[in-house]
Amino acid sequence: MTREPSELDKLADSWVQKLVELSPEFATYAGFKVGEDRLEDTSPEALAEYQKLEKDMLAKIEATDVADEVDKVTKMAMTSTMQLSQEIYDSGLWKRDINPIASPAQGIRDIFDLSPTATEENWVNLAKRMKAVRGAVDGYVASLREGIKSQDTPAVRQVKIALEQAEQLLAPDGFFRKFAQNAKPSEGVLSDSLKKELLEAAEEATAGYGEMARFFKEELLPAGNKEDAIGRERYGLLSARFLGKKVDLDETYEWGIEELARVVAEQNAVANEIKPGASVQEAIEVLDNDPKRKLHGTDELQKWMQKLSDAAIEKLSGTHFDIAPELKNLECMIAPTQHGGIYYTSPTDDFSRPGRMWWSVPVGVTEFNTWRETTTVYHEGVPGHHLQIGQKVYNKKDLNSWRRLASWSSGHGEGWALYAERLMQELGFLDDPGDRLGMLDGQRMRAARVVLDLGVHLGKQNLEGTGKWDFDYALAFMRKNVNMSDQFVNFEVHRYFGWPGQAPSYKIGQRIWEQIRDEYLTRQGANFNIKDFHMKALNLGSIGLDTLEKALLG
């Protein structure tokens, strides 16, 4: 039975409509058929206008009474999200928004991966969207120039890697040129005039990124901050944003050190199963030399991902989770970029675009080991991100559009995905010692980056007590704790330095999810049912962990 929308639901829905109007990126991501010919405006004026509108909406939400338990959660979630957004804006972090994975430097290009391409009309919009790149770049540059004026700039290290990424797009076979050259709708054909327009638009978009690269090199780099650490005060704000909960940062740092040691001990035990008496590194060598565990090329990788994902959905549906028919379609994709990283994108509101798991394979990486990546498929797919995010999009009978389409907490989402990996071990999907070692390898990486991220940005002494956490120490620390390609490790460490608070939200989020489940179990006693707990939690949507805890435990 669908509940009658409350006054608070109507406010939340109106805010989503405002987001659609203000953010073409959000509109495309959520599947609204508007703004497909435009790009995000991240100029100082646009950011200030957004904050003003959000502040006005926050006041309306605070003044609105709740009608039921659903409203109670909505009010808690929206209030905490918007209040923190205002604090972060006031801190000035928007003037230095650059990192290797999730800043406008990437976002301007990344939205093309999700833009509709089925019809000629879609490609007309895409030509306009490519022509909008220069304007989007100009707005972004204007915000970064404000940082230069106020001497509050991103770290030199982050500018350099963003510059490298921008310059990749300027190559003869750069993204926009290939995108236009390969333009092909699934319905009908493109006219010659539209093909020409797309090629011209691709050159304009490429030139836009050329201007971005020039700005990075000639203006931002010379003014860049020599200090990598963001500092305790700003880090506390970012940690709270990514978790949806304030935590004791110093206690969490010490817990991270303990958790890392615990996972290492667990790895050693599994290594002994793979080869009696073997170290973790020796067990890895055994697995890496096993031809049955090796994939060659991205085509083989994509097919393997899809097969494993489909099998997980089939086996878990109806037994451990209620998986709606709309959620049983998950597409595994090789991303058109080569930046590194694996990520998930949501289905549209009407599920016309399904959930997708993307793998951005770094340059030069052509071989993949299944023992490392089995748990990744569960993390990004089912029961990880796809089930979690897809379920909130699906749950129209209870949730307003903000709860379904706009609310996202990294600690909730990434914490759930790590929780899901451990759950798959508990359910017997990782009984193979190699696959289990791969899961532990990922858990070790996530524990290590709790220590690294907090250590770097809070200015902690390194673990040997020989000085602060600097880049070289952090890189050596991750090489010791991550058994992946050096290109991947290097990218990851740059990411942690440039995106403070985000990487730890995975493992800290997992910790809080497990704490909530354990407390829920204690309270339910003999009445506890793990499937019911999971579905009750997931049906709340992606809310901050503090709100999740209050919603489930009171």
Residue fraction in strands: under 5%
* Residue runs with pLDDT of under 50 for 5 or more positions: none
Number of helices: 24
| Largest beta sheet: strand ordering | 2-4-3
Q: Taking Cα atoms only, what radius of gyration do you get, to the nearest Å?
A: 23 Å
Q: What's the helical proportion of residues?
A: 55-70%
Molecular structure report:
- The chain is mainly alpha-helical and 554 residues long.
- It has a domain of 268 residues.
- 63% of the residues lie in helices and 4% in strands.
- The chain contains 24 helices and 5 strands.
- Strands 2-4-3 form a 3-stranded mixed sheet. A two-stranded antiparallel ribbon has the order 1-5.
- The radius of gyration is 23 Å and the shape is globular.
- The two termini are 24 Å apart.
- The model has no long low-confidence stretch (mean pLDDT 95).
